[in-house]
């Protein structure tokens, strides 16, 4: 018993003259810790060089990150995004804002480069929802499905909304998990903004199609807004997706009709609905009817060289006959030559043939 107490006690004495020793007891956890020699003592935080200290959100940046393209100004950031950055110091918020603007500028033409800017912003402001949202959407456009899903899950936890549930479900599809996509759609419920609900239906139909449920995919897109008389902002995408799934299900005539419906409401020409309809058998008149004032460019395969030469020889024979007749008339009299109509000349005849 005395040995145990002695092991858990240290006697600290400043000098031999101290009358009563001071005892300091340690708990068991401290007894188990390995003792370090004085030379192994870790430097205190203030002793460490600045570059070795762990970075904290809000610290002054060590560098400004990748070069932003010309025109990527903080002032171009939308009001909602700027409000989301107010929790950061002003200088950091402005720097992060520039990289978010750069990501938005590049996301369509160079998504990989846009992702570099979004990742840089995310590394320095990971607790800001608008930054995580930008990182997730940029990763989605760059084809980084797992990264996009992780970021958008974080946004949903931080904001509590389902604004990006369709993108999340599509990421699950892209990673070969259509069942997970359908689970997300079911969890989201029906209380969604109209545009989000339509996008989620399109993704759910794609998931059904991935699973081989072709007719179920068609049914998943049906609803009151699947009406050719409607012209909502999402109508072109909905009609196009419906036509695409009809074609996959083998219902070609219905697919043509809905591709034409999609082309008619596709004011921004975001889809190739008219070309798809023509490829499936729609005639030019049908396509032209849904594209007022526009011309559908259709690639026509050139004829083989031997057929082209044969046609040229056939077209040349009447011209030769006309030329012979003209010479015969010319032999009769100069007056007859003057009376030959200009339309019978070879140049004009060729022009007429082309017409």
UniProtKB/TrEMBL annotation:
Highest taxon above the source species: Bacteria
Biased composition, class Polar residues, residue ranges: 1-12
Composition-biased stretches (Acidic residues): 299-318, 328-337
Region: Disordered, residue numbers: 1-71, 299-355
Start-end of Basic and acidic residues biased regions: 21-59, 345-355
Protein name listed in UniProt: Tetratricopeptide repeat protein
Organism: Actinokineospora xionganensis
UniProt lineage: Bacteria, Bacillati, Actinomycetota, Actinomycetes, Pseudonocardiales
């Amino acid at each position: 018993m005395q040995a145990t107490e002695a092991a858990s006690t240290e006697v600290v004495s400043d000098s031999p003259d101290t009358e009563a020793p001071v005892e300091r007891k340690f708990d068991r956890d401290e007894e188990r810790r390995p003792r370090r020699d004085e030379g192994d003592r870790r430097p205190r935080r203030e002793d460490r060089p600045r570059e070795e200290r762990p970075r904290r959100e809000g610290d002054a940046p060590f560098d400004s990150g990748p070069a932003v393209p010309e025109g990527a100004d903080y002032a171009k950031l939308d009001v909602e995004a700027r409000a989301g950055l107010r929790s950061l110091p002003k200088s950091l918020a402005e720097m992060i804002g520039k990289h978010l603007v750069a990501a938005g500028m590049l996301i369509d033409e160079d998504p990989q480069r846009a992702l570099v800017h979004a990742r840089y912003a995310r590394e320095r402001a990971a607790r800001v929802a608008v930054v995580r949202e930008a990182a997730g959407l940029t990763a989605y456009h760059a084809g980084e499905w797992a990264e996009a899903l992780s970021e958008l899950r974080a946004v949903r936890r931080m904001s509590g909304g389902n604004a990006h549930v369709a993108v999340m479900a599509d990421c699950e599809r892209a990673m070969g998990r259509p069942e997970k996509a359908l689970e997300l759609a079911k969890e989201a419920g029906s209380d969604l903004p109209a545009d989000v609900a339509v996008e989620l239906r399109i993704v759910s139909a794609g998931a059904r199609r991935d699973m081989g449920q072709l007719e179920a995919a068609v049914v998943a897109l049906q609803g009151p807004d699947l009406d050719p008389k409607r012209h909502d902002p999402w109508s072109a995408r909905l009609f196009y997706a419906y036509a695409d799934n009809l074609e996959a299900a083998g219902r070609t005539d219905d697919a043509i009709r809905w591709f034409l419906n999609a082309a008619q409401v596709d004011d921004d020409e975001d889809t190739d609905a008219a070309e798809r309809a023509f490829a499936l058998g729609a005639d030019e008149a049908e396509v032209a009817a849904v594209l007022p004032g526009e011309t559908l460019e259709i690639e026509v395969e050139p004829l083989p060289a031997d057929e082209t030469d044969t046609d040229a020889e056939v077209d040349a024979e009447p011209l030769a006959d006309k030329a012979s007749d003209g010479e015969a008339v010319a032999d009769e009299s100069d007056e007859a030559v003057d009376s030959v109509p200009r339309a019978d000349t070879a140049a004009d005849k060729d022009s007429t043939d082309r017409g």
